[in-house]
Amino acid sequence: MTNAYTLTTGTRPLIVSMPHCGTAIPLHLQDDYTPRALATEDTDWHMPVLYDFAKVLGASLIVPHYSRYVIDLNRPPDNSPMYPGASNTELCPTRFFTGDPLYQNGRSPDRAEQLTRLEQYWLPYHDALSSELSRLHKLHGHVLLWDAHSIRSEIPWLFEGRLPDINIGTASGQAAHARICDAVMEVSNSYPAFSFVHNGRFKGGYITRHYGQPDKGVHAVQLEMCQSLYMREVPPFDFLPEKANTIIKTIEAMVLAALTTLENLP
């Protein structure tokens, strides 16, 4: 364990990344934020609980400690927008998902502070993720990176209407073999209660687009799902175990389908 993340190493060609589940904000930065920001409402809540099954599958897992409000691990280091023409969150976000300011007046991070955060929090996570991908690739000849996310089902600042329940992103098919994409989406037929979409509003962020190189044996899939499927979307953001049971089974089925397909690619 480092100060920035926890890495659990596994034995199968699978690593689960959860870049937005951290909740810590360093003490020396807290006075810069609005009081509301310290509750980190835009966290991808309860992800380690939802993906606890991955340990049994033999997966590696990487989990950050710090909030996306400090730095967004799923954004490129040059802060270029992931979705041109739409509302985008930044490398060092300055707004809540509601569009309201995260920082006290005049206290948002300047470029020097952004570079400091890049070095202290972003780079360690990505160095560890890259190293673990390389280790698993050397062991198996291929590897699946599953980038795990969740979000409130309705956020007008980011998208219109209600988001589909389960949003699979493979960078428009560029980040993973087509058979892996097909296998993941095929699971939807077994869970008709949920709405599924492939490469819709969320096609995959920096992690999916940067690391997904199927021609080199590295396949990346992002799963963005509605938090309403397993928790209360309002404070205190309670986990609802009985409600979560079905979505956990669904996620496990998707991950297993992708992994099995990977292991049987020619």
Instruction: Please give the number of β-strands.
Output: 7
Supply the CATH superfamily name: Zn-dependent exopeptidases
Assembly context of the chains: single chain
Biggest sheet statistics = 7 strands, mixed
| Residue share in helix | 25-40%
Total domains, how many? 1
Sheet/helix structural class: alpha/beta
Morphology call: globular
Number of helices: 6
The CATH architecture designation is: 3-Layer(aba) Sandwich
Mean residue pLDDT: 95
User: What do we call the CATH topology?
Assistant: Aminopeptidase
What is the topology, as strand order, of the major beta sheet?
1-3-2-4-7-5-6
Distance between the termini: 36 Å
Q: Give me the strand/helix succession.
A: EEHHEHEEHEHEH
Unreliable parts: none
Descriptive notes:
This protein is an alpha/beta fold and 266 residues long. The chain has one domain: Zn-dependent exopeptidases (Aminopeptidase). The chain is 29% helix and 14% strand. It contains 6 helices and 7 strands, in the order E-E-H-H-E-H-E-E-H-E-H-E-H. It has helices at residues 47-50, 53-57, 111-140, 178-186, 206-211, 241-263, and strands at residues 5-8, 14-17, 60-64, 143-151, 166-169, 196-198, 218-226. The protein has a 7-stranded mixed β-sheet with strand order 1-3-2-4-7-5-6, with helices on both faces. Strand 5, helix 4 and strand 6 form a beta-alpha-beta unit. It is globular. The termini are far apart. The model has no long low-confidence stretch (mean pLDDT 95).
